[in-house]
Amino acid sequence: MNNALRRNIYKNVMLSFAYAATALTVAVVLFIILYVFIRAIPHVSWQLLSTKPSYINDTIGVLPDILNTIYIVIATLVFVLPLGVGAAVYLSEYAKNMKVKRAIEYAIESLAGIPSIIYGLVGMLIFCQYFGLKTSLLAGALTLTIMNLPTIIRTTQESLDSVPTSYREGAFGLGANKWYSIRTVVLPCCIDGIVTGCILAIGRMLGESAALLFTAGFAHKVNGFIDAMSSSGSTLTVALYVYAKEQGEFDVAFVIAAIMLFMSLLINYTASKLSKRIQNKRY
After folding, report:
1. Is 29 helix (H, G, I), strand (E, B) or coil?
2. Where are the beta strands (DSSP E) in the chain?
3. Rounded to 5 degrees, what are φ and ψ at 58?
4. CB of 182 within 8 A of CB of 88?
5. DSSP 3-state assignment of 231?
6. Do residues 193 and 156 lie in contact, with contact meaning Cβ atoms separated by under 8 Å?
7. How far apart are CA 247 and CA 243, in angstroms?
8. Neighbouring-strand partners of residue 59
9. CB of 231 closer than 8 Å to CB of 219
10. Distances (CA, A) of 253 to 63, 169, 234, 256
11. Span 138-149, mean pLDDT?
12. Cα 24 to Cα 64: distance, rounded to the nearest angstrom
């Protein structure tokens, strides 16, 4: 068997393995999505989606959990985006001392590997007790901010590093200062990385339960955004855990899971459309 034939066989085997791995991944994802929706759809009702739980009438509603999830995602993004993007800009554009830069990057990577239950414990001790926020959505949002900082920083930093140096030099050649060139040239070129970081961060926010059990609480109350930030509230993941594990209401748990899947798909679709729209305006 000559070398050309051996390489051709190896290539075909690797291609077959890649196709099989792709097909298996797609099949698993589709199975999970279809299974959750098939189990959930028969139990979806307007009353379930638009009311809060009532122990007097013995009814279940998930409206407070949906609102609390939206509130905590918005509040976390308000905190984490400026901090994450600002830290990435500093590390990529301003940090000159390599030892300090490597130390910061090591700390960021270490934060990414900490289990979420530890974040919840620390968040409860610092935000709920030391700062006096008690069990509230604001304490949960601040905890999620620390958890998602590594994701935003790393994705933004990688996007900033991928922008060609010639873009910066061209801006400097036209008389722009460093910050102006970063704001008008570099950051618009890496909008995809920032959007990707946001999608990953939101996905983790939607799926987080361990940290929020300690910091956000279990309350099923309908509040406005300002009032909700200072009061206890159960998110969809926490509610799913309570209904499935504590109360054995698996039908409601599957409805909550379907809502979370729908929100995740909607966020991904909206983010991709927004990214394309920003790119079209730029070019």
Report:
1. helix
2. none
3. 55, 50
4. no
5. coil
6. yes
7. 5
8. 54
9. yes
10. 14, 55, 14, 5
11. 93
12. 37
Burial class (CB in 10 A: 0-12, 13-18, 19+), 267: middle
First vs last Cα of the chain: how many Å apart? 53
DSSP state letter for 247: S
pLDDT in tens, 175-198: 778 888 888 888 888 887 888 888
Q: What is the mean pLDDT of residues 212-233?
A: 86
**Tokens 């985006």 sit on residue:** 81
Answer yes or no: are the C-beta atoms of 65 and 49 closer than 8 Å: no
Amino acid in position 237: T
Residue 141 near residue 72, CB atoms below 8 Å? yes
The type of residue at 149 is L
At position 70, the amino acid (one-letter code) is I
Tokens of 164: 């060609």
| Average pLDDT score, the chain | 86
Global confidence as pTM: 0.86
Q: What angle do CA 27, 33, 35 make, to 5 degrees?
A: 95
Segment 77-113, tens digit of pLDDT:
999 999 999 999 998 888 888 888 888 888 888 888 8
Helix (H) / strand (E) containing 194 = helix 191-207
- CA 125 – CA 140 distance, rounded (Å): 12
